[in-house]
Amino acid sequence: MSVNLNDLTIIIPTYNEELVIEKTLQELINLKVHNIIVIDGGSKDSTIKKVKKFDVKILEIGYRSGYGDAFIKGINLTNTKYVCKFNADGSFDPIYLTKMLKVLESNEAYVVFNSRYLSSSKSFDDTVIRRVGNFFFTHLCKFIFRTKNTDILYNYHMSKTKSYENLKLVYKDFSICTEIPIKFKKFGFKILEIPTIERARLSGVSKVNAFTDGIKILLNTIKLLVKN
Fold it and tell me: Which of 3, 33, 172, 195 is most buried when burial is the number of CB atoms within 10 A of its CB?
């Protein structure tokens, strides 16, 4: 089954990604992905200068509004049928884009999540602290919200743009990582996970603070019990 990548928009949040952004963009373009939106949260380096070498949309927020806010703003700028958020650091392998699109086009599911913890999956970028945190939130969400995700904090997923709009996403920080799968579950959308191999990031370090961001995610996840 062939798929049309012109039906897909890739949203890339950036903040000081000058050492890797060109390679990330070129890799996507080599795969014939041309609808790309870069949402920059006030990079202090030459990230924007390097992005402007490519034929992509750019939204310069001018300040670090947040990981979730970048995705929400990107959705509002998307006019294709499908959308996927993509990390700038090189850890996401774009080969899975076609696989996810095939699942959606065949109506096997409304949303496709990648998982680093299914059989044949692997991560070259995970750490012990992040693995423990992910284990905690994955099982917390299974217990409270009856989610089925095995990798709840891994934010590599794809769905129809309209589906994301229907979720009415509100979390502007990393809490969006749990908000998205929880709301897909609560609203009754059919969910599918596929195994993935997470690559080692090409540059930089994770922008997630295990303690402070972990607390925010915990509190905001619990708030979803009473929010629509």
Answer: 33
